[in-house]
Amino acid sequence: MTGFFTLFKKEILRFWRVGIQTVAAPMLTALLYQLIFSHAVGRYVEALPNVPYHAFLIPGLAMMSMTQNAFANASSSLIQSRITGNLVFILLPPISTPAFFSAYVGASVVRGLLVGAGVVAVTAPFGLPMPHNTAWILVFALLGCMIMGMLGLLAGIVAEKFDQLAVFQNFLIMPLTFLSGVFYSINSLPEFWRGVSHLNPVFYMIDGFRYGFFGVSDTSPWLSFGVVGGFTIGLAVLVLGILKSGWKLRS
Question: Could you identify which of 22, 87, 116, 152 might form a hypothetical disulfide with 66, taking C-beta atoms 3.0 to 4.6 angstroms apart as the criterion?
Fold first, then answer.
């Protein structure tokens, strides 16, 4: 536990010392999205029944910001440690694989939740109603950040330089988040693209998270919970297995 708490504290301080960049900047970006999209199309679109578009946007923007920053936290930390050569000082102490895994993913969750709470706070004046079910909001926020934190850890293990890490961000994380119903309801899509959207795990994160605010969603919240929960467990098993094998991390 000493190793876990030490590494966890180190990862928290790493992003908190540049909080303007790691926490405040994503909040500003989400606020700009809210201003532009609600002004440009808000008066013409009703994405969910009885939910104004400017309110519909807020949970999607919050979850998108949380997931992107949770991924960035673990991946950037690990790749920086590998490139600068100080990863050896993390691997030499007797820190167990579960402690190593939990510290990186836990710090990613903390950063994601801080960003998500900040995004909700700055966009709530646009007309966010009282939450329909706070438990659903917390569950999907936590699971969404865990998934992206684990994906970030996996990317940091596989990538050997920033160019390779950018491949994950530009060709996996960015498309998954932007094509997951952040700015639209998937029920407005043609049947083929609606089916494709149902293969995107980030869609279920956002849809379940949005259900917690409004009580309505594009799909059943229990289905979203099952998909997101199953994805969390499967990804945890995969990443822990890779860490235990020491694949590429100690090279």
Answer: 116
